[in-house]
Design brief:
It is built from 31 helices and 6 strands. The protein is mainly α. Bound molecules: guanosine-5'-diphosphate and magnesium ion (MG). Guanosine-5'-diphosphate binds next to helix 2 and helix 5.
Length: about 700
Amino acid sequence: MSDIVSVREEKTKHIVKVENDKPKSVVKAALIGNPNCGKTTLFNQLTGSNQYVGNWPGVTVEHKAGRVRNWKTPIDVIDLPGIYSFSPYSPEEVITRNYLEQEKPDIVINIIDATNIERNLYLTTQLLELDYKVIIALNMMDILMKKGKKLDYKKLEKEIGVKIIPISASKALGINELLEEISKENNRLRGKKNFYSDNIEASIKKIEKVLSYKRNNIDNLRFKAIKVFEKDALILSELKLSSGEEVAINEIRNEIKTTKNRDYEIIIADERYKYICKICSECIMWDKEDDKESISDKIDRIFTGKFTAIPMFLVMMFAIFFITFGPIGNFLKQAVENFMANNVLASAEYYLNMFSASDWTKSLVLDAIIGGTGAVLSFLPQVILLFTLLSILEDSGYMARAAFVMDKLLRKIGLSGKAFVPLLMGFGCSVPAVLGTRILENKKDKNLTIFLIPFMSCSAKMPLYFLFASAFFPNNQTIAIFSLYLLGIVGAIFSAFLFKDTLFKGQESPFVMELPTYKLPSRKNLLLHIWDRVRDFLERAGTVILGATIIIWFLQSFNLHLQFTMDKSESILAVFGSIIAPIFTLCGFGNWQSAVSLLTGLIAKESIVSTLCVLYNAQGTAELGNIILNLFSPMSAYAFMVFVLLYTPCVAAVSAIHKELKSWKLTIISIIYQLFIAWFASALVYQFGTLFSKIFI
Ligand code: GDP
Ligand code: MG
């Protein structure tokens, strides 16, 4: 009996062993570098995937892994968030550091932006100190070549002791050479570790001795000794120094202090930069004076200038709105609407009549499916326009400037400039915007930003704004819509003041964000970005909105006895809607149809339009526009838009909010707050509006 067991054990041991061996043949390569140095571009190039590449720091917030395609040996690459150093302050640094410590990749590919080599090497010195096996991918070589600048990378290689492969991730140059180096095991080197002048080096050695006196086998002893010298809080709490050790280490530090009376972290950083400057001066073979005022700097003098920055920003934003919501956008929308009415609807009607379909089939297909979903689809051109323009601004590098410019303003409401990025994304869709708050370092910044994102009017609300603005304010459409967006921003500012020292107390974090150089947006990236949004829009139209439309159609076509009825006021929906409608009497739209459409808006905001379409039996938005003219006054129409602008976002956004806030309490506060403020603002607009118009008109 026991024999059988042991044989079995032997066998399973063997199997386990084989399985353990297997992953070893796969090389794990982690991509590490500063933000914006081209990690994701290289990752996409290697794995053939389509990760979104953005021209601002902080696009990659979680790590993504993929297998290199078309290569002789299996290599897994991991795209990690960009970092400037290894002092764990930002979530990016924490994610990257944890990944390296826990997953222990076989090799670190340190990507260096060759146009910005000094700053990028700072991280390299830390990687080498941490004792990783490193290969350097010297990226953006195409830019250097184009400018005719030369870099003696062989000399650099000798100096720091690891392999350097010049590449261009976006032009796919040097990729095979890089893979070749990754595959060769004996080319994975650990490189140089001593970057300091003699007296600092001596202090580090002494601290190493103090640390290892009572502890055995500290891994990365040298790195920790340096961090102890710097007084790095995290490492200090990890090591739990005894008071004796602290005294000894303080003495060692004090020896330095007599010569350089400064912060210890700065002393180390300073030493590193001195070293980097020295080796760079030997390797860089162009006149540094040439770099001084580039075209980028000249443009920046306007875009980030003291007096020009804010006006430029407003002009840009207004231009985007004018193109999207003004004549061009309207023309395109008309074209789609005409196509829907003249071709799609007409031929559907023709075929339904040909097969003599029943009344309710006709109603389902024409009113609900084509009418409702079609009404939402006709906004596709404007969605495309808006996102094309925003992506161009983003890819060109302008958005990062805008964040920089906004920092001062955002500080006043308790946020840092970095929060601008997710807030701006909120104008597209709250879901990615909320997820995007992961780039924010501290919890206060993050939670407050999540609370404010719903105030940034998302693109799903556009259809409703168009519909109402073109019906009620035909001559001032752009202004009417722009005013709503502004009102949203005002609401956000108001809420920030309300919450910044109450619900979300805490320290603000400094603004660290590099300004990328201006680039012509790449067509591929642009298309990818736009396609992402369009696909999302179409998917929603085809799934959630279609579903909601059909349900609404059903509820409004059948009465409580489940009989098909043409009289909508008898329908299930009317009964239900009439119960909640009185809530909105003060806001000026206390009819059951508006109440119901607002309810379906919780599923998806576009549904408000499609629901109204179904409820009023309208074919296309033009007809719906005429119908609502008789149901709302301009004042109640604007109050309705205000309510839609401010009330609780759709379920997808709420679930993202809950996921990121990690608290039911805060999520529920956020929902109730939005509902309340929407109702309050809308009632205020309606009541004061009517009062004023009675007095003055
Ligand atoms: P990450 O933040 O490190 O992931 O950087 P990304 O991959 O998002 O790239 C940042 C920007 O640099 C994008 O606009 C890329 O198109 C651009 N880029 C990346 N690699 C190269 C390159 O080799 N040459 C040039 N000219 N641009 C590049
Ligand atoms: Mg990236």
